Amino acid sequence: MNYGAILKEIRTYDLITQEQIAKVLGISRKTYGLYEINFRILPLKHLNAFCNYFSISLDYFFGFTSNKNYKKSKDNIDYKLISIRLKEFRKENKMTQEELVEKLNFERSTFSKYENFQNKINTEFLYCFCKKYNISADYLLGKIDNPKYLK
Question: What burial letters (b/e) apply to 112-151, b meaning 16+ CB within 10 Å?
């Protein structure tokens, strides 16, 4: 996914400068610029702030839905709920951690830390997981309770 191009498209559509959005995110303009040229992937906390600023859902940002936002969406990510929802998803689908990460091409230890609330989920994993299993990123992050699955 070309995160940088999407960041730039959304930012420039609203005529916001890199300096302005960097200030909103609490980072330098130079750091933000690296995200727009895909030198780095925007960390989830900054991506969430970006989406909140432009009143768009993460699902919309990722291209999972054409709906720009959800009613009753929360602004904050619930990191504890992510671990619960990851585990619930895996158990509902009768998968082991090994089976799940093999399909995603991620390390089991990384997923285990997400599922056991030892590490915060990263943007790349979130995108890959949600895209593969057609699950809402906003749901997984605890920003919404419905819809859980996307069409």
Answer: eebbebebebebebbbbbbbebebbbbbbbbbbeeeeebe
